[in-house]
Amino acid sequence: MITDIRNVPDQDALECDLCIIGGGAAGISLALEFAGTNTNVILLESGGFDFEPDVQDLYIGENAGLPYYTLDATRLRYFGGSTNHWAGWCRPFDPIDFEKRDWVRDSGWPITYKEFSRYLPRAAALCELPSNNYDPDHWISNYAAHIHAETDTAFGEEFRSAVFQFSTPTRFGEAYRDRLDKADNIKVFLNANVFHIDTNDNPNIVDAVNVKTLDGTSYKVAPKAVVLAAGGIENARLLLASNNTHKQGLANGAGLVGRYFADHLELASGYILSPDSGDLFNSFMTSPATPVTFAIDLTSNAQKRHRLLNMDITLHSVSNFTETSEGFGAVRRLKRSFDQGQWPDNFFSDVGAAILNMDDVFSYLFNSNAAGDDSVFLLYNRCEVVPNPDSRITLSGRKDKIGMPRTKLDWRLTEQDYLSIEKTHKQLGKALGQNSLGRVKVELENRFKSWPAVLQGGHHHMGSTRMAADPKHGVVDANCRTFDIGNLYVAGSSVFPTYGKANPTLNLLALTMRLADHLKQTYG
Amino acid sequence: MERRVFLKVLAAVGATASLAASPNALASTFSRRKHAKNEVYRLSQLAVKALKMSPVAALDQLNARFGAARIAAGLPKTLSSTAAAQDFAADRTVQINGWILSRTEGLLLAAAPLLRP
């Protein structure tokens, strides 16, 4: 059943076995797992079925660190959550992502890749993927007319090809709305903003979840167990704001809630120049003829040999390239702001950059117009970053409409992050040269002596309630249960202790399926 | 690098790397386009005038005029790919203007402004 909580009398006690906070990919998928069971579930969703500015406003926060997306633009707050605007890129973590690596600080998971991967088929089904198969050979043989035969083997030992699958993209709110509505044991309450989680009677047990509507009406939910599935930023915010009895916030005994916030770095980094017609590299172009896209992956052996972070590279036609030059970037930012009717954030510096770099503005405009040449490809990276405790979410001094402290994000990166990107490109240049595939031009050098003025992340909010083997090093245990609070769990990418380079949705869903099985055993 | 030293290095590379690295052969790389040919010639005049110009600076000149992409695109076709591949395999690489090139290519690119078409 799906109900607007504003139609529920506020004196009603809302009791349940399991309370799920957040109606995004994780929350909806978790609730579905209990449809038709004896477990009574309440799912609390802040928004309604559509985007509403007043609700989205609750996401406004401060960026105190490196330049990052505005916090109310990098996610969506209504039923279905950020799946309402995701692009559907799916690929699983790599086995090396779960390993403790001595060159990556605080790396490793308390579960193995093998344990994790058992849940990928269920995650793939939720994303409505055509297959759970990510073996390049499978796709090469099935689409031989469109994919070069050597796509998987051409790069030598240090690089391999890898496969992205595409969700339709599944809008979880639309796709699973009917199933939740028809489930007698599940109540989905819309417009229900959780602002505090109580541990009144026992400091180690949640006994109430406090809800408020935008018009100020309050409700309490009394659950046996709570799963926080509000997103990679909001999970930490809600724990930190639940500070009536725990002054540092819930589940924050080690002071780690909000720390280790990460996003994948996604950036255009240069070009591949192919000496022939580019047939091999054309296999890496997104094409309607195939349901997948290939990426060039740094192998795990190469990561170990050169002590590098995980990274993949997709290729794009230069006629579609996003800028890598300072001048062109400035022009684009100015245009984007004016198109949106906004005064540019850095008007004078961007105008200055455009004037000082007019040569490369013209050069790139010329190249992009003249790029009928298919043998030039733009490199686009998705990069793992080092877990960094100084990159963190805290609470702002400002409050939102329901009286909850707003988010303050201090996103930080390390020197190792950009040195790894640079070194990986050198390895790619070597691999292409050695195998007579072409040459690489890297356009990182000058940009990374200091981080570029505008950094790009993947909108992948991870790490702020990290999983660990013990409470000194994380917020949740291997079952996603908080170390400090016995009946409080966290679902979503905020539990990732190491981030890999893969887009998070498929992977957080696999973990959510694992959590569902654990909850069924514990509370079923 | 002084011009005399630089030319010696270039000659050594040409001899030992089994490249068709005579000036005429290298010039043919650029003579595919009349426009490019003229540009190289003019640049070579500039370079000769300014012999203190470093190889990197010389490449910068080339790059600024018609793009290192187009130069490097031609090199793998005309030079010995074996020599370049051997350089890459042995980690003998240079990075010039962002291009990750074999050392052989780097030397030849740097020499380009000194060649007459």
Mean pLDDT of chain B: 52
Global morphology of chain B: globular
Q: Taking all residues together, what is the mean pLDDT of chain A?
A: 89
Q: Helix- and strand-based class of chain A? A: alpha/beta
Q: Percent of residues of chain A in helical segments? A: 25-40%
Greatest chain-chain contact: A-B, 27 and 23 residues
**Percent of residues of chain B in helical segments?**
55-70%
Please tally the helical runs of chain A, counting DSSP H or I stretches of 4 or more residues.
Answer: 15
Order of helices and strands of chain B: HHHHHHEEH
So what's the overall shape of chain A? globular
The CA-CA distance between the termini of chain A, in Å, is 20 Å
Please count the beta strands of chain A (DSSP E, at least 2 residues each): 18
> Unreliable runs of chain A, pLDDT <50, ≥5 residues?
319-323, 362-374
The gyration radius over C-alpha positions of chain B equals 13 Å
Strand content of chain A: 15-25%
Short description:
The complex is a heterodimer of chains A (524) and B (117). With 524 residues, chain A is an alpha/beta fold.
Question: How does this model look, in words?
Answer:
The complex is a heterodimer of chains A (524) and B (117). By secondary structure, chain A is an alpha/beta fold. Chain A has 15 helices and 18 strands. In chain A, the strands form three sheets. In chain A, strands 1, 2, 3, 7, 8, 9, 10 and 18 form an eight-stranded mixed sheet that branches. A seven-stranded antiparallel sheet of chain A has the order 5-6-12-13-14-11-17. Chain A has a three-stranded mixed sheet with strand order 4-16-15, covered by helices on one side. In chain A, α4 (120-126) crosses α15 (504-523), α11 (326-339) crosses α12 and α11 (326-339) crosses α13 (358-370). Mean pLDDT of chain A is 89; it is low at 319-323 and 362-374. Chain B has 117 residues and is mainly alpha-helical. Chain B has helices at 3-16, 23-30, 34-49, 55-66, 68-78, 81-89, 103-111; strands at residues 93-96, 99-102. A two-stranded antiparallel sheet of chain B has the order 1-2. In chain B, a hairpin with a 2-residue loop joins β1 (93-96) and β2 (99-102). Chain B is globular, with a radius of gyration of 13 Å. Residues 1-55, 73-80 and 113-117 of chain B have low confidence and may be disordered. Chains A and B meet through β11, α13, α14 and β17 of A and α5, α6 and β2 of B. β17 (439-442) of chain A pairs antiparallel with β2 (99-102) of chain B.
